[in-house]
Design a protein that fits this description.
This protein has about 300 residues and is an all-alpha fold. It has one domain. It has twelve helices and no strands. The relative contact order is 0.23.
Length: about 300
């Protein structure tokens, strides 16, 4: 049952992505990071106080590394959401499982063990074939750069999940992990805003302003559910349930934004999901003692 927290996280993150899509026309990327982080810090601070969870951590450097890779992944994902169809941006972010498989294959090639990596290499190639299918319609819209940034968000997510799992394994409370990540996001956003400035409120639509608080709350709850799932659930099942987020995002993309995704795009999306699931299964079988640290 613990793995079902990942389904909840996928729904919450997809819902947050809807808000990012709406507010991205009114706010800059640093502002999005700042407001998302600020609301999350306040929300998680209240929750932690109510639960009696102390802020002091015995592993500050682990949180620092989680913050660096997490903010990078979040910033690139927000950029992709703003410039791509919602379903496309979310799917590229969920390429994390394929990226981890690519890292494993790359290490095997480096150490001359490529003969053992045929099936895993096939999942990597299939995953990137799916990316080509998905991004083909965006090439006509001059959105190739946004697609590449979306791929980077998936790479960052793969590294972030690794660190989230490591923090859970040593007993760090989920709330504390989410709080420090949120604080880092707010600080990174504030640093960017200090250079670019805030958008005057008279230029902000009421829809965008109304979404700022829900975005932070949805993000906090999503991070909490994800952290609980990876730290307490079966890693293989959790890693595969994350792809429910693509289904939620596709529904939102069609119903709320009327995004037109051609058949080849849907096939590419399905291919990415299938390759991600297969890669996770193959990695878990190959490394049965350390599956969690790789995702």
């Amino acid at each position: 049952m613990q793995a079902l927290w990942m389904v909840a996280a996928a729904f919450l993150f997809a819902s947050m992505a809807v808000g990012i899509k709406v507010v991205s026309v009114s706010f800059s990327l640093p502002e999005l990071l700042f407001y998302r982080g600020l609301v999350s810090v306040i929300f998680m601070g209240v929750v932690m106080r109510a639960r009696g969870t102390p802020l002091t951590t015995p592993v500050p450097w682990m949180h620092a590394w989680r913050a660096v890779i997490g903010v990078f992944s979040l910033a690139t994902w927000f950029y992709a959401i703003a410039h791509l169809p919602l379903a496309t941006a979310v799917t590229l972010n969920y390429m994390s499982g394929v990226w981890v498989a690519a890292f494993v294959v790359g290490g095997a090639l480096l150490y001359g063990q490529s003969n053992r990596q045929g099936p895993l290499m096939a999942t990597v190639l299939a995953g990137f074939a799916g990316v080509v299918m998905m991004l083909r319609p965006t090439l006509d819209q001059n959105q190739l750069f946004a697609g590449l940034v979306g791929l980077l968000s998936g790479m960052g997510a793969a590294m972030a999940y690794l660190q989230v799992t490591a923090l859970g394994r040593i007993g760090e409370p989920e709330g504390r992990t989410v709080f420090y990540f949120s604080a880092s996001t707010a600080l990174a956003g504030l640093a960017g805003v200090a250079w670019s400035g805030f958008t005057p409120w008279q230029q902000v639509s009421w829809q965008a302003a109304a979404w700022l608080v829900p975005i932070g709350v949805l993000a906090s709850l999503g991070q909490w559910c994800m952290t609980r799932a990876y730290s307490r659930g079966a890693t293989l099942l959790v890693a595969n349930l994350q792809y429910a987020g693509i289904v939620f995002a596709a529904f939102y993309s069609l119903v709320l934004f009327d995004d037109q995704i051609p058949l080849i795009g849907w096939v590419g999306m399905a291919l990415i999901v299938a390759s991600g699931v297969a890669a996770t299964v193959l990695r878990t079988r190959a490394l049965p003692n350390t599956p969690a640290e790789e995702h």
